[in-house]
Specification:
eight-stranded parallel β-sheet; binds zinc ion; hydrolase activity, acting on carbon-nitrogen (but not peptide) bonds; nine-stranded mixed β-sheet; alpha/beta; Amidohydro-rel; Metal_Hydrolase; Amidohydrolase-related domain-containing protein; about 35% helix
Length: about 475
């Protein structure tokens, strides 16, 4: 339920809006779905609920531009994985072991985990489309969690093996059924698809580094024809990049536009980055998975320096929590290390500021998905997607620099309140769900996924994985 709220006398408002700046002792007025006013001593009426802002930082909700939300049940399975391990287990075994109900629970709990950590918008790169029912279930999970998101329907086909949740006949007789089904989903759930809608329809391309360019062109045309607002894809993963220069080739085909959003892109060439900048394409760096899985150094700062729309993503929860504080921190310190090491002597000036990564996690994300007029900053007239970070404990008190506190000190447990679209979805540090009951449903789902995954023909799938990897490293 939306309503009328006033956050009274917040210690700090980190607005990410240049004209508002970072005022102290400031009020924020929220009415219905919108931020109405930001400033000192705002007038409110008796029907405004007052929220005490003492020792609180108010900041925009985080925007996660790359997430496979369905993977909740697989938390911690990939903490020692490099990319080939991930491809074998997540993309060939566990993915094929998900029923529609598992996809629902994965997306629902994954979106709740995001909200708990202050992520108010996510790009759900949803490659768990084992059947049309999986697509419905994944969308329903996002709806029930009340998160703002774009559901990016993926064409990826999990492999079929005896005991998997794949329909062998459907995959063999109509292997491109997902294109048609994406259209059905658009019609069923996303008739309006306007910028202010909580959920919007997007599309995920087949893996561009492994897909013929003409097929990618057809997929982009299809996505645009059904009204997908964000068209996303993995691309150019450093040492796992076969050198196909996808963006350059899509440019030659006149397919590049601001609705495209590439994740990773650690090995984009200079000319590709310039094309990305020119056409306003979004880029998402996922520092945790890129640094862990051998995908090379995150490109975010290089892209940002060239004027590209650089943003951040969590990617997977099988090796990292859905925590944007952590992504900001990891990217910032890795970049500082890289730039300081490149100097001939010791660093006399700080290479990179905390504010740069906070921008990527908020306004940068909003720009990358074309919603910078709707979300991403504490600006009157924008949708009320914001978080209240409590700083009265031993780790967070006192605060001299609120941006430094958000980037280098805070974690999800400091988030007292989360607003999405003017509605409180976390308050008093707690989500509005019955977690013990939900946890038991999640536990049952984990048990059934693990039981099915045991039937996977490991040796055959390893051979298929090796082919996949060979194609990724075929560059001369
Ligand atoms: Zn990914």
């Amino acid at each position: 339920m939306t309503g009328k709220y006033i956050i009274k006398n917040a210690s700090h408002v980190v607005s990410m809006d240049n004209t508002i700046g970072n005022p102290t002792n400031c009020d924020v007025l929220i009415e219905d779905e919108y931020i109405r006013a930001v400033g000192p001593n705002l007038k409110s009426s008796s029907d405004h609920t007052i929220i005490d802002g003492t020792d609180v930082i108010v900041c925009p909700g985080f925007i996660d531009t790359h997430r496979h939300t369905w993977q909740t049940q697989l938390r911690t399975v990939a903490t020692d994985h490099v990319l080939p391990d991930y491809i074998l287990y997540l993309r060939q075994i566990y993915g094929s072991s998900y029923t529609p109900h598992d996809a629902y629970i994965g997306n629902y709990c994954g979106a709740l985990e995001s909200i708990d950590n202050g992520i108010t918008y996510l790009v759900d790169h949803s490659h768990i489309m084992n059947s049309p029912e999986h697509a419905d279930a994944a969308v329903q999970g996002l709806i029930d969690a009340k998160i703002r998101a774009v559901f990016c329907y993926a064409t990826y086909m999990n492999p079929t093996w005896e005991g998997s949740c794949m329909d062998k006949e459907r995959e063999e007789t109509t292997p491109d059924w997902r294109l048609k089904d994406a259209e059905r989903i658009k019609e069923k759930y996303f008739q309006s698809n306007e910028p202010g809608d909580l959920l919007r329809m997007g599309f995920t391309l087949s893996e561009p580094d492994l897909t013929p360019i003409d097929q990618l062109v057809r997929e982009i045309q299809h996505a645009r024809s059904i009204g997908a607002k964000v068209i996303t894809a993995h691309s150019s993963h450093g040492k796992w990049d076969p050198g196909n220069f996808i963006v350059r080739r899509l440019g030659q085909k006149k397919m590049v536009g601001p609705d495209l959003l590439f994740s990773h892109g650690t090995s984009f060439s200079e000319d590709e980055l310039l094309l990305i900048q020119e056409y306003g394409v979004g880029i998402c760096s996922t520092p945790d998975t890129e640094l862990q899985m051998g995908m090379s150094h995150p490109i975010a700062f290089k892209a940002k320096d060239l004027g590209c729309k650089a943003s951040l993503g969590v990617d997977v929860c099988c090796s990292t929590p859905a925590d944007m504080f952590r992504q900001m921190r990891l990217l910032l310190q890795a970049q500082r290390h890289l730039e300081h090491e490149a100097l001939t002597g010791g660093a006399l000036n700080m290479a990179r500021k905390c504010e740069e990564v906070l921008e990527m996690a908020t306004m940068g994300g909003a720009k990358a998905v074309g919603l910078d007029k709707v979300i991403g900053s504490i600006t009157p007239g924008k949708r009320a997607d914001l978080i209240l970070v409590k700083c009265d404990n031993l780790r967070m008190f006192p605060i001299h620099d609120p941006i430094g506190a958000l980037v280098l000190y805070a974690n999800g447990s400091d988030i007292e309140t989360v607003f999405i679209n003017g509605e409180i979805v976390k308050s008093g540090g707690k989500l509005q769900v019955e977690w013990p009951k939900l946890r038991e449903e999640l536990r049952a789902s984990v048990k059934s996924i693990m039981a099915r995954s045991k039937k996977a023909p490991l040796e055959d799938l390893k051979a298929a994985r090796d082919e996949f990897i060979k194609a990724l490293v075929s560059r001369e």
